[in-house]
Amino acid sequence: MSSISQSFSLSFVPSKASLVPSFSNNIKCYHSLARHAICSSLKNDANSTRTRGLPACASNMALSSWFFYNDNNRGGGMFDPSASASSAMTPAVVAPDAADDSAEGIGIMKFLEGKSYFITGATGLLAKALVEKILREAPNTRKIFLLVKAKDTEEALNRVMSEIVECGLFKRLEDVHGDDYKDFMMSKLVPVVGNMCEPNLGISDDELATRMYDVALNINTRGPFRLLNFAMRCKKLRNFLHVSTAYVNGQREGVVKEKPFYMGQSIAEEKATIASRTDDQQSLSLPQLDVHAEIKMASQMVKDLKKDEADRKMRELGLDRARMFGWQDTYVFTKAMGEMMIASYKGHIPVTIIRPSIIESTYREPFPGWIQGSRMVDPVLLSYGKGLLPGYLADPKAPVDIVPVDMVVNTMVSAMAKHGIQPDLTLNVYQVASSVINPLTVGEVFEFSCDHFESFPLKNSKEEEIMIEKMKLFSSLDEFSAYIQYKVSEMMGLRGEEDASSNPRTLRKIQTICKRTLENLVYMAKLYEPYAFYKGWFHNGNTQKLMAEMSPDELATFPLDLKNMNWKNYFVNIHLHGLKRSLLRGGR
Q: What is the Cα gyration radius of the chain?
């Protein structure tokens, strides 16, 4: 689940006076310098791309956030951005104008225009899509400050140019502005030198970082609390938006409503209570979830462990604790505890939580099929297309809840506008999900993928088209492993008489490759097993209500409706084409 990102958004009303509070601990160091950098940049000419350095702040390493504020009068109130070490996400601080009572709908465009933004994680999938959407729909945006890890200004500018300005996602903006495109982009984008955007605290293996319990707790549980602590010190706060994941619902079954978590809530205990009512038995005594105790235990354990065993032990601890309390893995467990921290300590702050399911390539905007990196289901589909995965461990009827990234961005912007214009103290939860209104199953995903790869086959190193078979699904790990071992051996030429006729050295080499391939495929199947047999469907009633409040023009500009998506068309003609363009250089 490492592909699912984390985000926060704060909304403010502008003020003539500075809204910067006095900060404590390490947060003070970062925010005062961030304010200096951004405010100084705003005083420069509108076309300036000058940057300022921002030092790392260790205590903020769990955050990923973007802020925006109103600076229409130049010299008005300035708002301090919070910062993050995770580059996977995007959030915000907003200074909306007063809502126009005569305007139809929510007033999203009025809310967006004329604002300045501070964004961390700016090179990630969701952040880029958000930046593109803002600049395309609100071109009079004043500035978008991008926190960039770089050794100096020149390197920061080069990263912004190569990873954002020259990114194919922005092709529509380039077409609109023509020869002036780069000037337009660099008049809006202001890189701010800092070293807090390194993915997963500098750990290069994303998957490893999300499974190490102490790291995941720091990023997903303590991080939201740190930013919330900052938000409480900000005057005239209008909204705090946090992007979580729909899979914080863990092992819940059936239709799962959009309800916030309360501190110490355990899904295992919840399921045991339901079972006891059904079976007319007393509830079993289960361990109580104490979020602060989990943080303390993990911190102490990592100190006591030897360096060469710490990573493995912390991964095992995280998975054990997650499953004990009713979550399928460390990532979603720590994300759920992050939501508990927000709900328990939000106080007077109006909070909005966005829970997207599995984020995949764009459906329509800015063009169909754009994706960055390999998302949750993509490694499985690519292995299938390469002919390496003829079978899989999964329930063909299990739901696969997918949402295109442009739909997530549109929901974020719409919800942010609604609750920024009319803030309230209710904790609002939006599940951006498809499994209830437009269900898709595991069997259908493989069926549609088969249709695609049969029509548009991948090629091997000899430029030969790879032929695939219809996916065979198994409910037993042992049966799956035996089948895969047979098929991989067959593909490697290790069946029957060919074994005896091979050169011993060559045979050993092939056997080693075969063993490694088998181990990797079985590992992947076990990793995805909780999701391949998932029994929950995510309700999105609040998103439906949000759509009902939007005007026809807003619905056309910020489409959220997943109900009428044609999944076969999406996989066959959009997503897999985009995935191959992104990862396989034209399908190879």
A: 25
Contact (Cβ atoms closer than 8 angstroms) between residue 12 and residue 79: yes
Calpha distance 405→288 (Å, rounded): 36
3-state SS, 208-228, equals: HHHHCHHHHHHHHHHHHHHHH
Catalytic residue among 335, 346, 418, 580: 335
Residues 316, 322: Cα–Cα separation, whole Å: 10
- Mean confidence (pLDDT) of the chain: 78
Closest CA to 258 of 411, 379, 483: 411
The single-letter DSSP state of residue 396 is T
Q: How many Cα atoms are found within 13 Å in the side-chain-facing hemisphere of 567?
A: 22
- Report the predicted TM-score, pTM, of the whole model to 2 decimal places: 0.80
Rounded CA separation 235/176 (Å): 39
What is the tens place of the pLDDT at every residue in 474-484?
Answer: 999 999 999 99
Q: Chain-centre distance of CA 588, in angstroms?
A: 27
Active-site annotation holder among 117, 331, 384, 570: 331
φ and ψ at 391, to 5 degrees?
-140, 165
244-268 residue pLDDT tens: 999 999 999 999 999 999 999 999 9
Reply yes or no on whether 531 is catalytic.
no
Q: Which helix or strand (DSSP H or E) is residue 243 part of?
A: strand 237-243
Q: Give catalytic status of residue 335 as yes or no.
A: yes
Q: For 13-156, where are the E strands, in sequence order? A: 53-54, 66-70, 92-94, 115-119, 144-149
Comparison of pLDDT for 407 and 284, the residue scoring more: 407
The stretch 220-245 carries a mean pLDDT of 79
Gap between the Cα atoms of 189 and 146, Å rounded: 7
